[in-house]
Amino acid sequence: MSDKIVNYYRIEKAISYLSESFTEQPDLDTIAGKVNMSPFHFQRVFTDWVGISPKKFLQYLTLDYLKHKIKETENMIYAAELAGLSSQSRVHDLFVKIEGVSPQQYKSEGRDLEIFYGYHASPFGMCFIAVSSKGICALKFIDEEKSRDEFELFARQWKLAKLVHKPSYTQGYIHRIFASGPAQAGDAAHDSLQLLVRGTDFQIKVWEALVKIPFGSLASFQQIAEIIGQPHATRAVGSAVAANTILYLIPCHRIITKEGSLGNYHFGKVRKLAMIGWEGANISKNWIAG
């Protein structure tokens, strides 16, 4: 396991503690002790990951922050400005295009399709990615012990495709996807990625709405239902969000309940909170820099 992945799991453990204890305002020594690291080393690892200190990161873990982001999106919808809160908020976003497989392709289960896949370190732990000539068809965050399970699930969905383990190829995609971190946000804004998805017309409509949520913003299930013109379909929206297999690019981590609860997240609530905080911190830094 790479140092990057090991450090992420330390950070995740710290975020779990912070989310439960933020009202106590724990100091750096206490937080570092929870992950068995020296305060100096932990501060450096955490700052390398997100660009701010654990103490400053606390603000992105509060219910008030989550509710504020939902209200921000509500105002944005009413103002018909779903394209983004500002030019600053868009600088981190990748240009993502979604293409659904045709009914014939769906029935063929991937026949005549070659798909390259690999496992890589990311800012949020290990991930699995699969890419065909028609676009990215899977991106999931995984724990090492479950990596085989995720691959077998993917293989069943594309059972007649030719699956080729080629991390040297898929690594380039990982770099492009996660280049929207502290050092390379400007470059990522001009990138473009094609996604190949398997889903119903309704699911694809929901996923297309998700990719319109700007980096660092949050929306509720109800808001997504309103965006797609089916305000009473909140439960169905939740099912479509859960069916997403291209994480981060189709950002289901940006969907929470209207009350500010994180809701369910197959790949871990703490990881979802880490992603929300990581994006929020990067947006704030960009505002300050701008």
UniProtKB/TrEMBL annotation:
It comes from Chryseosolibacter histidini. This is methylated-DNA--[protein]-cysteine S-methyltransferase. Belongs to the MGMT family. The keyword Nucleotidyltransferase does not apply. GO terms for biological process: DNA repair; methylation. SMART domains: HTH_ARAC (SM00342). InterPro entries: Homeodomain-like_sf (IPR009057), HTH_AraC (IPR018060), MethylDNA_cys_MeTrfase_AS (IPR001497), MethylDNA_cys_MeTrfase_DNA-bd (IPR014048), MethylDNA_cys_MeTrfase_DNAb (IPR036217), MethylG_MeTrfase_N (IPR008332), MGMT_N_sf (IPR036631), WH-like_DNA-bd_sf (IPR036388). Its EC number is 2.1.1.63. It catalyses: a 4-O-methyl-thymidine in DNA + L-cysteinyl-[protein] = a thymidine in DNA + S-methyl-L-cysteinyl-[protein]; a 6-O-methyl-2'-deoxyguanosine in DNA + L-cysteinyl-[protein] = S-methyl-L-cysteinyl-[protein] + a 2'-deoxyguanosine in DNA. CDD domains: ATase. Residues 12-109 form the HTH araC/xylS-type domain. GO terms for molecular function: DNA-binding transcription factor activity; methylated-DNA-[protein]-cysteine S-methyltransferase activity; sequence-specific DNA binding.
